[in-house]
Amino acid sequence: VRINLARAIYKEADIYLLDDCLSSVDGRVGKHIFHECIKGFLKNFVCVLVINNPLPLEDSDNVIVLNKGRLEFHGTFNNFKEWNNQEVKLELNWDALYESQNSEKNEAQALVPNEACSANVYEEFNKEGKVKKSVYYAYYLCGGGWKIFLIVAICSIAAHAAASWTDYFVSFWVDMEQELSAFRMNQTTNLPEYRNLESRYEIIMTTYSLVMLAAAVFTVLQALTFYFFTIKASIKIHKTVIGKIINAFMTFFDNHLSGNVLNRLSRDVTIIDEQMPCVMLDSLKVILSMYGVLIIITSVNWYFIIPSIILTAVVYQTRRMYMNTGRCLKRLEGAARSPLIGHLTATLEGLTTMRASNAQARLSNEFERHQDLYSSALYMNLATSRAFGFYLDATGTIYSSIIIFSFLILKTDTRAGLVGLAISQSFSLLGLLKWAARQWAELETQMTSTERLLEYRDRIVEVPYGKIPDSWPSTGAIKYEGVTLRYSSCGKTALKDLNFHIGSKEKVGIVGRTGAGKTSIISTLFRLYDYEGNIFIDGIDIKSIPINYLRSKLSIIPQDPVLFSGTVRTNLDPYCEFLDEVLWDALEEVGMKNAFANLDAEIMTGGTGLSVGEKQLFCLARAILHNNSILVLDEATANIDPETDTLIQKTIKQKFTNCTVVTIAHKLRTVIDSDSIIVMDGGVICQFGPPKSLLEDEEGLFYRIAQQARLVS
């Protein structure tokens, strides 16, 4: 909030609109901001300050009070005091309104190591060198293993062997047609030799037809089995990675920006779904066809095996040289795409701020810079690919020339059909050679997409699954035993050896200064991060409970409530578990029945159009619907008006009497009536007990916090 305020002031605008910028700071900081910043730095500018709670406005030129979209009061501060005393009697004291507890909204992010924070926000790890054999083996296993792969191999070899034999039979067909034509021209068709030749001709044509049929059948089988293999591999990789991400600890999302994740789950998944299977099949077909052509050519003249071996060696070496560059360029292209996607995502999310700050030109220049880097990597990748193709064409041309001139120079008794077959096959080898090497190289570059996805599979620490116990939880008792939490392996300890017990149906408040570890306790209860030690609910360690089931049994009203794009019904009851009457009753309990015309009323992403208080009431309605035995309030009343605060507190007392309620307190008076209070400081529990006994300890931290809140003299 203070950074955004500083950014707004730095702009030097004529009018400043400050939307509740003082609610998340304590009284001392709030007074300092108000007097030094708003009344000092902005004294010569128009400033509209929107607040939920009244505060000392002696120096304000005008005070406006709104209620449900209507103007309740407009006048000077002195008139406001008279109206306030007569009408609503609102609190006009800084310290009572803004107690000495800052918002911990970003506590988890604040504990991320500084190195991570100072790094490039769009930076993505880029591997070097060859794609490891383990990546190919993992893809092979995801496709079904040796059984399906063996079927694919047999069908592929059979299909291309049959296709090569058909080409070879054509040469015999040509020679026999010449011999038969010679008999007909000489009118010697009645000779036994002619009849024998006709019999052989019929056998060859029958064999040719059968081989053609076999080639067609095996080609279809090859395509079916191969695509079954690749589709199965793609589905399994995608499911595995998605499952890993969904069940990952929050540490993964702290260290990986959404743009990088979206890049891998969009572009890389598209490659292994749509492009890589085609490239892989082409590589298999062309390589087998190329070897078939080489076998046919060498069968015509065994001397051709020497240039064939040289050709293979030259092509392999050329491909090897290309891959050293092409592989890295492909990875560089993928890594350069992440900043582009990340920038687009951030721009779309911050369109309002961008336009309000008139930063379109700056962001456009930044986008063009990311686009230039990506285009450069893409261009270099395409250029090296074309150069590789040129060298292959030159090599193939030299090989074909050697075959042709060898028939012209060397005197052989090779039949005309075989000579024509060898020459035609050498020409076809040009295209096959070029396509085989390029597709082989393209396959390895596209395997980097599989490598990037499998990296998520191997690196993400997944929340372990467990068994679902019967009728759990029933009482809502919570017990922490030696719980220690670090948000990262190199970060500082957020919680240090916590040990406490919250009884069934007990109402407990958690208080402490900023960074004391209050929100961290909730993070461990919901298993957002991995931790050391044990947490028991109703005597069962929550590490043995499936994460989805655990979180479904815990209700929470967060400081920043989340609403999804959809309808009132889908936000309240996404799994259609309750009747409409029950949904309306829940909305009525929180005073929001009249806020929506029907349950199919549309709710925009993030709950646009609803105030923070209304969103929190909506979350409270969700909690009422599920009626779980544990309710967590994470700074739930920090940024709302007193009326909504009173309504939430009243509803909680009425509807959650038989539930365990854990409240992280922003305002100390909201938890002063709790059964027990946990006082946190530096990640450890410094006090724990009933509020009355804690107030008796005048040397304790809780007593000092109560003094600052003016709850004690």
Describe the SSE topology.
Layout: H1 2-10, E1 15-19, H2 27-41, E2 46-50, E3 63-67, E4 70-75, H3 77-86, H4 94-97, H5 107-110, H6 114-118, H7 133-142, H8 146-185, H9 192-246, H10 250-255, H11 258-300, H12 305-349, H13 351-356, H14 360-409, H15 416-459, E5 478-486, E6 493-502, E7 507-512, H16 518-525, E8 531-537, E9 540-541, H17 547-552, E10 554-557, E11 566-567, H18 568-572, H19 580-589, E12 602-603, H20 612-626, E13 630-634, H21 642-655, E14 660-664, E15 676-681, E16 684-689, H22 691-696, H23 701-708
Parallel strand pairs: 1-2, 7-14, 7-15, 10-13, 13-14
Antiparallel strand pairs: 3-4, 5-6, 5-8, 8-9, 11-12, 15-16
Explain how this protein is built.
The protein has 713 residues and is of the alpha/beta class. α12 runs parallel beside α15 (416-459) and α20 runs parallel beside α21 (642-655). The longest helix has 55 residues, at 192-246. It has 23 helices and 16 strands. The chain has a six-stranded mixed β-sheet with strand order 10-13-14-7-15-16, sandwiched between helices. A four-stranded antiparallel β-sheet has the order 6-5-8-9, with helices on one face. The protein folds into three domains: 2-118, Rossmann fold (3-Layer(aba) Sandwich); 133-459, ABC transporter type 1, transmembrane domain (ABC transporter transmembrane region fold), CATH 1.20.1560; 478-708, 3-Layer(aba) Sandwich (Rossmann fold). It is elongated. β3 (63-67) and β4 form a beta hairpin. Mean pLDDT is 79; it is low at 92-122. Residues 478-707 form the ABC transporter domain. InterPro entries: AAA+_ATPase, ABC1_TM_dom, ABC1_TM_sf, ABC_transporter-like_ATP-bd, ABC_transporter-like_CS, ABC_transporter_C-like, ABCC_6TM_D2, P-loop_NTPase. Pfam families: ABC_membrane (PF00664), ABC_tran (PF00005). GO terms for molecular function: ABC-type transporter activity; ATP binding; ATP hydrolysis activity.
